Amino acid sequence: xxxxxxxxxxxxxxxxxxxxxxxxxxxxxxxxxxxxxxxxxxxxxxxxxxxxxxxxxxxxxxxxxxxxxxxxxxxxxxxxxxxxxxxxxxxxxxxxxxxxxxxxxxxxxxxxxxxxxxxxxxxxxxxxxxxxxxxxxxxxxxxxxxxxxxxxxxxxxxxxxxxxxxxxxxxxxxxxxxxxxxxxxxxxxxxxxxxxxxxxxxxxxxxxxxxxxxxxxxxxxxxxxxxxxxxxxxxxxxxxxxxxxxxxxxxxxxxxx
Length: 257
Prior knowledge:
By secondary structure, the chain is of the alpha/beta class. Helices cover 40% and strands 21% of the residues.
């Protein structure tokens, strides 16, 4: 009898270990806020992470909707690009003083309720510069917010400055929809799954394009049979980080390497 009980306990332990080891992916949907149709992406019944541009017509409504559905909300902060492309309202640029930089960042965070972290919109110029990235991380450290580097440049200094200032930081692995053809979307999605299987975790960034919406609507339903779990970005934070936004605190789990 004791032997049978021991075998049962070992089987249960094996099942739990197997479940815990299931590869995980997080998908951040950037550029939310300009179009009413963005709300359709927010409504998808999956734990997507919603990254919202500040000072946009549907930004606050998107944040409220995402929060009501227990989705992670992030501020998608416009940052200066090397190609000179217009940032839209609220952008951070290299010619700002620290006071101007911090004030603009503060206003943007006030505009997006429930934001628990920040990622960069564009930023191929600004994220290469140590000084503005140091200012950013100083502020995020004070606010207990994390940073996800969209990696719009391989020369990004964001991760280095995050470490210097004790800020939790993660990095994007895959852009899903630089090309929105079905073939290209599938290739990028497959790459995301390969990375997750190799490293247990992977992060993708997508956008509220109609093609991306319909692709995710179809593909996310298939993840359980593929042995992959979709999780909010907060699931990839180190356990010592506590997600804080709008008066609530929630524990996070293991860090992403």
